[in-house]
Design goal:
This protein is an alpha/beta fold. It is built from 6 helices and 9 strands.
Amino acid sequence: MSAPAGEDAARLASLVADFPDFPRPGVLFKDISPLLADADAFARVVAAMAALAEDVDLVAGVEARGFVVAAPAAHAAGRGFVALRKAGKLPGRTLRASYALEYATAELEVRPDVVPAGARVLLVDDVLATGGTLVAGASLLESCGAQVVRVAVLLEIAALGGRAQLAGREVHALLQA
């Protein structure tokens, strides 16, 4: 399945709810919960993401909402799933990368023993805003010796310029805001 277009994209976009001033004043939070609660819409998103994983070894998802899209897409494509977790959530040896959000800073971790050197990876998150989270995720995967083949998101907020942070990478957004 290709990325949703036309009426299909409009229907999916209508299922994304806006919450102004969350989690702090000045931030417009894009809530994908209504889209995920719609079985048909969720299936379309998973199928579109799975199609982007046909030529990779692993699908990596960013905690937490990226997991919701990445894990079922990995399963549908017959690929393994790697969790990029918030700092302090993984046992054993981890690699860590810091990044800035529109409203805070955070860190991601990965267990390098679950990412084989040379693995081809699709990196997935729910929203591309400023790009910091996905840059950190790609950096972590590449520090394990993997190749991030492409980046995919459910929704891109183009006005925040995150795609520019991923310059040189193949980026797919199912929806634009």
